[in-house]
């Protein structure tokens, strides 16, 4: 990948030091930065999202073309339908993706000095661009015929639960292990009670319920999440909340946030449900040039009005909240993103 040599950040800061406070300064700096990208060599970027059928993949399908439109002619943004909240951090760290969607709490672990509970050390290539894209809920979905009405039922020695999860590498699957542990069980516990645990691709999940070979699916979902919405239509299902305060407290200690899934979020869900959740963020590789990340950030900010068209879960996005360090996992912002936000008057 070729990157132009001019540093947008240093250009902007030199300009501000020469003419601080002049309104025209912001406009000229932005023009200089944009021109440096427009006349640079093409770049190929890989945008890590999640499997086809997941909300993040839909985000990438909308954001990818918007980003590509701000890059030099001939550039490409390939949306990768793989991995997830945990795996995406590894893809960025290992140089296998330049842009990724993350969850704030797993990004926070990745950026921490010791890697938190999920990683075996700091992922020092991960840089923040914007957070608080949405709210994801750590939810369970059970068939009515199974008689499962709570997480206590899923964790019970007396229930035979045929459980479906997503593939490892995503935060949803990690969350399933954590929520079972918070209720005193595990995958092995589910199996020892006569049940089963299978990891399926999202595209195959609904079929497992339609043919009667599954009772329960758990994942991190948004309102209008494609797979969850399909499940609620292919068979008679209920959404499972977390009613054990001690379990919620334990999950909060792992980085989750207490949330409430509003009544009516899914078909047949007629009451508010307590859960834990997290929010999505955009991260990039520290190896990307300032100019390229400036262009990425500009593209995202200028596409905010179209976010709800990308996915309904993005309809509540608030740009001012999105720059708070906490919703970005306290990961360091990429200098190119900082340069754009300063130009736009959004960051000091």
Automatic annotation (TrEMBL):
Domain of life: Bacteria
Alphabetized UniProt keyword annotations: Receptor
Gene3D superfamilies: Periplasmic binding protein-like II
InterPro entries (alphabetical): TRAP_TAXI (IPR011852)
Keyword Transferase attached: no
NCBIfam families assigned to the protein according to its UniProt record, in alphabetical order: TRAP_TAXI (TIGR02122)
Protein name: TRAP transporter TAXI family solute receptor
């Amino acid at each position: 990948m070729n990157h132009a040599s001019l540093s947008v950040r240093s250009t902007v800061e030199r300009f501000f030091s020469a003419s601080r406070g002049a309104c025209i300064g912001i406009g000229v700096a932005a023009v200089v930065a944009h021109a440096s990208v427009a006349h640079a060599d093409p770049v190929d970027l890989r945008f890590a999202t999640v499997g086809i059928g997941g909300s993040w993949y839909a985000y990438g399908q909308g954001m990818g073309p918007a980003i590509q439109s701000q890059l030099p002619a001939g550039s490409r943004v390939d949306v990768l339908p793989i991995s997830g909240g945990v795996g995406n951090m590894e893809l960025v760290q290992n140089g296998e993706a330049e842009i990724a969607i993350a969850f704030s709490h797993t990004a926070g672990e990745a950026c921490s000095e010791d890697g938190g509970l999920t990683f075996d050390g700091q992922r020092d290539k991960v840089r923040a661009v914007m957070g608080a894209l949405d709210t994801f809920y750590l939810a369970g979905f059970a068939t009515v015929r199974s008689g499962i009405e709570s997480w206590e039922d899923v964790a019970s020695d007396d229930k035979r639960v045929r459980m479906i999860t997503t593939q490892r590498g995503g935060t949803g699957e990690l969350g399933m292990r954590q929520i079972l542990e918070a209720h005193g069980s595990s995958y092995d516990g589910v199996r020892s009670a006569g049940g089963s645990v299978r990891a399926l691709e999202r595209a195959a999940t609904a079929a497992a319920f339609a043919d009667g070979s599954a009772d329960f699916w758990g994942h991190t979902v948004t309102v209008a999440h494609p797979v969850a919405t399909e499940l609620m239509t292919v068979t008679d299902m209920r959404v499972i909340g977390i009613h054990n305060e001690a379990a919620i407290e334990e999950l909060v200690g792992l980085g989750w946030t207490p949330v409430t899934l509003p009544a009516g979020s899914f078909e047949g869900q007629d009451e508010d449900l307590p859960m834990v959740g997290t929010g999505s963020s955009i991260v990039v590789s520290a190896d990307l040039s300032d100019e390229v990340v400036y262009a990425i950030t500009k593209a995202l900010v200028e596409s905010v009005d179209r976010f709800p068209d990308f996915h309904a879960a993005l309809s509540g996005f608030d740009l001012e909240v999105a720059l708070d360090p906490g919703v970005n996992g306290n990961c360091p912002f990429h200098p190119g993103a900082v340069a754009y936000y300063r130009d736009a008057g959004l960051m000091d």
